[in-house]
Amino acid sequence: MDFLLPSAWNLDTVAEVVGVITGLLCVWLAARQNIWTFPTALISVFLYILVFYKARLYADMGLQVMFAFLNFYGWYLWLHKGSQRAERPVSRMTKQQWGWLLLFVPVFTLGLGMYLHHNTNADLAYWDSATTAVSLGAQWLMSRKKLENWLIWIVVDAVYVPIYIYKELYPTALLYFLYLALAWWGYIDWKKSLRAQVANVQG
Question: Per the UniProt record, which residue ranges are transmembrane (predicted)?
Fold first, then answer.
């Protein structure tokens, strides 16, 4: 674990460590339904574009670009409920949204995986593409404050951990391990919020 020694740090390591810190903070803020999750996430996103480029995880690098757009999108949606300027409530996924997600993930994985495998020097092209597809779906759902986004994050974070260990991105592997706990906490907290909303409507 040489990355723990400051003498072994370089610009790439500093970018990864700061990306880890801001990444943890943005997920904690998201679990708290705090709007500051979005600007914090943008800092992490821009740093991880560099980190994943260096690691030849090009799908993950592209994912960070998409995350930037989705964070601006989520920032707006969380502040607006429909045409009203009111905070968006937590809600559940619809059957149609599940259908689109289950269609999008395999199609995106196969398409991007084949492209990266045959046209680039990408490492773990199909695994990288699969985790990217699931992460895009989860981020889109979080932007729309869908409760199930946290369960999807738990699944994909569990896959990310061994991938980043294999790529020797140890701070990032630790980050995604901690994401597992934060995602579960986020799910429990958002579920309580949803129950409170339902109780208020029924009351």
Answer: 13-31, 38-55, 61-79, 100-118, 173-190
